[in-house]
Write a structure and sequence with these properties.
168 residues; alpha+beta; Arc Repressor Mutant, subunit A; 2 domains; three-stranded mixed beta sheet; two-stranded antiparallel sheet; 8 helices; globular; zinc ion binding; transcription regulation
Length: 168
């Protein structure tokens, strides 16, 4: 296994509680989306999604390109095209704060308010949806005349596992 400097700086604990992604389910969903649109689920799209599902952490497009480059260099533009498709399919989310992407193996409702909780210690991302938070934010937006395009919130903090670890 190759040395990953990103992991060594975060310690062994970083891999100890990655959230499992059902790679088969997310691949099936992406394939079904492609079929419904009459477009191919290309090998590049499959590879990008498989890598994100296996990594369990957000990855930048250039990092994805580097990890997918074997005998032939993968260009970042190829990765960005695949990521665009995978986002449309609802299989990948983008963390704007990190310009990074991560796999998602469950469906979200149209316009559903999603909260991404990003652990600053290990990089794990948890997703949550809250009707209460959504109603509150929609109310504030309506009052101010603001029209949200992407109802996503990112919270940075410490996941439960890292919080326990930091108490020890």
């Amino acid at each position: 296994m190759a040395h990953d400097p990103d992991q060594s700086s975060k310690g062994v604990h970083a891999d100890a509680h990655r959230h499992a992604i059902d790679a088969d389910a997310v691949q099936s969903r992406a394939r079904a989306y492609a079929t419904s649109k009459g477009i191919p689920f290309t090998p590049m799209r499959q590879r990008v999604l498989a890598l994100l599902a296996a990594s369990g952490k957000p990855m930048a497009a250039y990092e994805i390109a580097e990890k997918l480059s074997d005998a032939r260099r993968v260009q970042a533009v190829q990765v960005y095209r695949a990521l665009e498709f995978l986002q449309e399919a609802g299989c990948v989310h983008r963390l704007a704060s990190q310009s990074a992407y991560f796999a998602c193996d469950h469906l979200h409702g149209s316009g559903e308010m999603v909260v991404f909780m990003v652990c600053s210690q290990c990089g794990a991302v948890q997703e949550a949806a809250s009707d209460l938070v959504a109603r509150g934010l929609r109310g504030v937006a309506k009052t101010t005349g603001f029209k949200p395009l992407h109802p996503i919130i990112e919270l940075e903090g410490e996941c439960a596992d890292c919080a326990i670890e930091s108490v020890r």
